[in-house]
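We close this part of the discussion by returning to an individual protein. The sequence in question and its C-alpha cells are set out directly beneath this paragraph:
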Amino acid sequence: MLKPIFVCLLVFGTYFAKSQTYAFIDSDYILKNVPEYTEAKEKLDKIAERWTKEIEDRYAVVKTKKDNYQREEVLLPKEEKEKRKQEIEKLEKEAIELQTMHFGNNGDYFQKRQELIKPIQDRVFTAMKKL
C-alpha cells in the first residue's frame, strides 16, 4: 500500500521539478559591459568627487579656524571670542548643509543618479525579466 503512494509522489515530484527552471543573472557584469552605464557611472563619480572635495575644503577651513581660536583664546577679549565662536559655528553649519544638499536622502547625488543611471538599469532589468 505504501508503494503506490511512493511511486505517485516520485512521478509528480519529478514532473514539478522539471517544470521549474532557475537562472542566475549577474546584473553587475551586464551593467559593467554596457558602455552607456560605464560612461554615466564615470560622470557621476566625477561629480561626487568634486562635491566631496568642496565639502572637505570647507571642513579644513573650519578646522583651521578652530585651531587658531584655541591657540589665541586666552589672549582674546570676550567680544572677540564670541564673534569667532559664532563664525566657526556658522561655517560648520554651512558645511553640514552643503553635505546634506549634495549627499542627503534626496540630495543632488541621488537626483543625478536617478537622471543618469536609473534609465539604463531599467532597460537592462526589463530585458532580464523577458528572459
About this structure: The mean pLDDT is 85.
